[in-house]
UniProtKB/TrEMBL annotation:
<keyword id="KW-0472">Membrane</keyword>
<dbReference type="GO" id="GO:0055085">
    <property type="term" value="P:transmembrane transport"/>
</dbReference>
<feature type="domain" description="ABC transmembrane type-1">
    <location>
        <begin position="93"/>
        <end position="282"/>
    </location>
</feature>
<feature type="transmembrane region" description="Helical">
    <location>
        <begin position="128"/>
        <end position="149"/>
    </location>
</feature>
<protein>
    <submittedName>
        <fullName>Carbohydrate ABC transporter membrane protein 2, CUT1 family</fullName>
    </submittedName>
</protein>
<keyword id="KW-1003">Cell membrane</keyword>
<feature type="transmembrane region" description="Helical">
    <location>
        <begin position="34"/>
        <end position="54"/>
    </location>
</feature>
<keyword id="KW-0813">Transport</keyword>
<dbReference type="InterPro" id="IPR035906">
    <property type="entry name" value="MetI-like_sf"/>
</dbReference>
<feature type="transmembrane region" description="Helical">
    <location>
        <begin position="203"/>
        <end position="225"/>
    </location>
</feature>
<feature type="transmembrane region" description="Helical">
    <location>
        <begin position="261"/>
        <end position="282"/>
    </location>
</feature>
<dbReference type="InterPro" id="IPR000515">
    <property type="entry name" value="MetI-like"/>
</dbReference>
<feature type="transmembrane region" description="Helical">
    <location>
        <begin position="92"/>
        <end position="116"/>
    </location>
</feature>
<dbReference type="Pfam" id="PF00528">
    <property type="entry name" value="BPD_transp_1"/>
</dbReference>
<keyword id="KW-0812">Transmembrane</keyword>
<feature type="transmembrane region" description="Helical">
    <location>
        <begin position="161"/>
        <end position="182"/>
    </location>
</feature>
<feature type="compositionally biased region" description="Low complexity">
    <location>
        <begin position="1"/>
        <end position="17"/>
    </location>
</feature>
Length: 297
């Protein structure tokens, strides 16, 4: 029996494919199996949005037809021309943008301050105050609607943008979400800043907030979404069309005896577009924040 030379043995070993590590199976699909279930579900949720987009380029006759047309016979932009030609539409869009951006900025500031206080500071009644604040999240808006209206009336803010901004300056959800995210951050980073002589506000601004961008993005997106799409409170607090928000202004396209559905659909497409862009821009940070804020209670 002859011994195999070293070069021949090395060539033979190189030709043999490496064995798969134990515990790992070779994938039959180039993607996760969950995608087979999630892809049809995503298409199902996208059907209303697709129908909204197609209806916005239909004529009123096609929209009112029964059975409804699934595809426009031709592209009709009369709905968009009607909406954009309305003299008050730019004002409504600007009102919604002002209210939403102010609500987002104030929730980021006050939510960060409150969340950091509940996460890192211990003071008399902090637990009771936190539980009380969280309990308010379970109270439906219908129960607080009348007291809120009376407070805004006493402040002289009814029928102004202030009546829409003040109740949305800070929400318990923003404080709670940021508190949960702050709890997941290591204290050693803050202690190092304290040793260097930083105050609590400086630690929050220079150390904590730069690490909390996913949570801040989530608060910003959800606050923008809730404020932008709100119809109930503007319907109660606003009387004149000069102060209408976009959602409230779109209701004027629906009459008691006649509704221009092409304009309603076109207006809703324009309304939904900023929300979709905001969510897509912050999607990665949104998911990262939701997974991180639940690591520590």
């Amino acid at each position: 029996m002859t011994a195999t030379s070293a070069p021949a043995r090395a060539a033979r070993d190189a030709s043999v494919p490496p064995a798969a590590p134990p515990g790992r199976r070779r994938r039959l699909l180039p993607f996760s199996g969950w995608h087979l279930a999630l892809a049809p579900l995503a298409l199902l949720f996208a059907v209303p949005l697709l129908w909204l987009l197609l209806s916005s380029v239909m004529s009123d006759g096609e929209i009112n037809r029964f059975p409804p047309a699934l595809w426009p016979s031709h592209v009709d932009l009369s709905g968009y021309r009607y909406v954009l030609g309305n003299a008050m539409f730019p004002r409504w869009f600007a009102n919604s943008l002002i209210v939403s951006l102010v609500a987002v900025a104030s929730n980021l500031v006050f939510g960060a301050l409150g969340g950091y206080a509940f996460a890192r500071m211990r003071f008399a009644g902090s637990r009771v105050l936190l539980v009380t604040m969280l309990a308010t999240m379970a109270i439906p808006f219908q129960l607080t609607m009348i007291p809120t209206f009376l407070v805004m009336k006493r402040l002289g803010l009814i029928d102004s943008l202030g009546a829409l901004i003040v109740p949305s300056l800070v929400t318990p959800f923003a404080v709670f979400l940021l508190r949960q995210f702050f709890l997941s951050l290591p204290r050693e980073l803050e202690e190092a800043a304290w040793i260097d002589g930083c105050s609590r506000l400086r630690v929050l601004w220079s150390v904590v907030l730069p690490l909390s961008r996913p949570a801040l993005s989530t608060v910003a997106v959800l606050t923008f979404l809730g404020t932008w799409n709100d119809l109930t409170w503007p319907l109660i607090a606003i009387n004149h069309d000069v102060h209408y928000t976009l959602q409230l202004g779109l209701t004027t396209f629906q009459g008691q005896h006649h509704t221009k559905w092409s304009a309603v659909m076109a207006g809703n497409v324009i309304t939904v577009l900023p929300v979709l862009l905001a969510f897509l821009a912050a999607q990665k940070s949104f998911i990262q924040s939701i997974t991180s804020s639940g690591l520590k209670g």
